[in-house]
Amino acid sequence: MRASQLIEWRDRHSLCPEVAARALGVTFEIYVAYEHGDVDIPAYIDFSCRYLTENPSEIVRPKDLPAPINALKTANATEIAVAALTLIQSTLLRLQTSGVISDSILLDISMNAIDSHDVEDVADMETWDRGVMEILRDVHANISDR
């Protein structure tokens, strides 16, 4: 995907850059870098754009967010991290079940994430890190059991 195609995708869905970034699961800064051509756009962004084009109701717009998160006044970092992890998990599983990514790619994603977040002593993990590991291991186990 080229930067111009990403901009066309965003315009076609009437999204501002902030909402497009959130819908694609990247930071605003990274999204802007994609649009400006400062960094290469990874394949998963192209896959996500295709998925969201076919499933536009999956795009969460600011008016759809719960008030505490929308106002950014009462949600703490852990609540936001858990919401983000849930979104990532459901997105990966939907991409896999719709055939956009294969079981082997999903296994690779989960193993790489586990390897990058794993620590020797679980007691050293932050509470939400343990949640991250549980979700990653669940995704990996669900695919491995097939």
Question: What topology emerges from the helices and strands here?
Answer:
Blueprint: H1 3-12, H2 17-24, H3 28-36, H4 43-54, H5 67-71, H6 77-97, H7 103-117, H8 127-144
Give structural notes.
By secondary structure, the chain is mostly helical. The protein folds into two domains: 1-62, 434 Repressor (Amino-terminal Domain); 65-146, no CATH class. The protein has eight helices and no strands. Helix 2 (17-24) packs across helix 3 and helix 7 (103-117) runs antiparallel to helix 8. Mean pLDDT is 75; it is low at 67-71.
Question: What are the defining features of this structure?
Answer:
2 domains, single chain, 146 residues, globular, 434 Repressor (Amino-terminal Domain)
Briefly characterize the structure:
This protein has 146 residues and is mostly helical. It has helices at residues 3-12, 17-24, 28-36, 43-54, 67-71, 77-97, 103-117, 127-144.
Helix content: 55-70%
The sequence of SSEs as H and E is HHHHHHHH
| Residue-averaged pLDDT | 75
Instruction: List unreliable stretches of 5+ residues.
Output: 67-71
Number of strand elements: 0
Computed Rg = 16 Å
Number of helices: 8
Structural class: mainly alpha
Strand content: under 5%
How many domain modules?
Answer: 2
- The rounded distance between the terminal residues' Cα atoms is 32 Å
Which sheet architecture does the biggest sheet show? none
| Spatial shape | globular
